[in-house]
């Protein structure tokens, strides 16, 4: 069988870890660890740094904040570790957390270590040699949605996560917070999003706040597929933004990334995952399935989807802002302003066709 697994790469310049210190820490902290040690880096992602560690015959993953950033609230390793620790016994898709270290003398920052979930991660295009029939990919999409539903159905108080978020007023805080972030990241060539921002403020849902464990970045490239059965999801990664909040908002954030086969050409340009494949569920089908599985009335989902598009635009604009002001030279980021403009047109289209 061909190797489709997500493979680590050489460590980026300036982001190395001290192998001797890391191995010494692991041997004294985690049972059955031994050398030699090999450290590489998973190259994707724009936030916390993720390293692959092979210690003896064990494969581990180490997560640490970006170099140079000290905003602990945005890169709280202990919080991420604690969420995994609470979730693992009741949500088997989590990686197994093994150790948390607040001694910054080891690698220069707080970090935590977890067991590696080895498997396939789907990105913009399928790995070479991997293919799905329409029925197979439909099944995979259903599974993706069902696992998100399963997460949302957990009793967060029973597993000790009642203090990991403030569900009351969550939607309003999120909307106002992302509007502020957008305004702070504006560049002269960015759209103002006036119509979208006004609509999001005016149409704030009146329903009582629902509360659940939400992932906040749940999408195909954050789930792991079984190497021997690529139709089966075996893991969910990247829990740094998880909290207690509105589950429908979590779905709206997920579907902002969901580009369908029949979406306009310009929307296809910003596709990041293979959600255009034959057999893929449409956004409408995913929402319908979520309603059936969760029992939640989804008649006002346009709001959550529009917010998801706006939030995605803010993320793109924040990265573009760094490029525009010369804080990064990465040429990939130059194109993000086009994504911000396309997402505004998409959000306006949702507003024009919405009945809420």
Break the fold down into its secondary structure elements and pairings.
Layout: H1 19-29, E1 37-41, E2 49-55, E3 58-64, H2 77-87, E4 97-101, E5 111-115, H3 134-152, H4 170-184, H5 194-202, E6 212-214, E7 223-226, E8 229-236, E9 243-245, H6 247-255, H7 265-268, H8 283-294, H9 301-324, H10 336-353
Antiparallel strand pairs: 1-2, 2-3, 3-5, 4-5, 6-9, 7-8
Count of alpha/pi helices: 10
The CATH architecture name of the largest domain reads: Alpha-Beta Complex
Helix-strand category: alpha+beta
Largest sheet: 5 strands, antiparallel
Low-confidence stretches: none
| Widest β-sheet, arrangement of strands | 1-2-3-5-4
What number is the mean pLDDT? 93
Compact overview of the structure:
This protein has 356 residues and is an alpha+beta fold.
């Amino acid at each position: 069988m061909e190797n489709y697994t997500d493979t680590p790469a050489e460590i980026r310049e300036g982001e190395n870890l001290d192998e001797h210190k890391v191995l010494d820490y692991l041997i004294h902290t985690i049972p059955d660890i031994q050398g030699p040690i090999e450290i590489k880096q998973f190259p994707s992602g724009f936030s916390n740094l993720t390293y692959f560690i092979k210690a003896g015959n064990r494969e581990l993953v180490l997560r640490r904040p970006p170099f140079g950033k000290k905003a602990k609230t945005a890169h709280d390793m202990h919080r991420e570790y604690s969420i995994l620790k609470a979730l693992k016994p009741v949500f088997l898709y989590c990686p197994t957390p093994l150790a948390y270290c607040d001694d910054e003398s080891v690698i220069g920052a707080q970090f935590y270590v977890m067991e590696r979930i080895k498997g396939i991660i789907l990105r913009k295009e399928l790995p070479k040699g991997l293919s799905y029939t329409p029925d197979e990919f439909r099944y995979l999409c259903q599974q993706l949605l069902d696992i998100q539903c399963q997460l949302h159905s957990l009793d967060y108080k029973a597993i000790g996560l009642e203090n990991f978020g403030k569900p009351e007023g969550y939607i309003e805080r999120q909307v106002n917070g992302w509007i502020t972030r957008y305004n702070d990241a504006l560049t002269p060539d960015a759209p103002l999003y006036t119509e979208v921002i006004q609509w999001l403020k005016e149409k704030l849902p009146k329903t009582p706040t629902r509360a659940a464990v939400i992932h906040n970045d749940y999408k195909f490239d954050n789930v792991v597929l079984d190497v021997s059965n690529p139709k089966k999801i075996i893991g969910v990664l990247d829990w740094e933004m998880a909290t207690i909040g509105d589950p429908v908002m979590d779905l709206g954030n997920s579907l902002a990334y969901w580009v369908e086969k029949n979406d306009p050409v310009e929307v296809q340009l910003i596709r990041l995952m293979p959600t255009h494949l034959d057999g893929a569920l449409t956004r409408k089908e995913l929402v319908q399935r979520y309603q059936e599985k969760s029992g939640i009335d989804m008649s006002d989902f346009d709001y959550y989807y529009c917010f998801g598009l706006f939030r995605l635009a803010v993320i793109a604009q924040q990265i573009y802002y760094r490029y525009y002001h010369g804080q990064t030279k990465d040429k990939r980021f130059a194109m993000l302003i086009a994504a911000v403009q396309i997402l505004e047109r998409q959000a306006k289209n949702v507003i024009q066709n919405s009945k809420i």
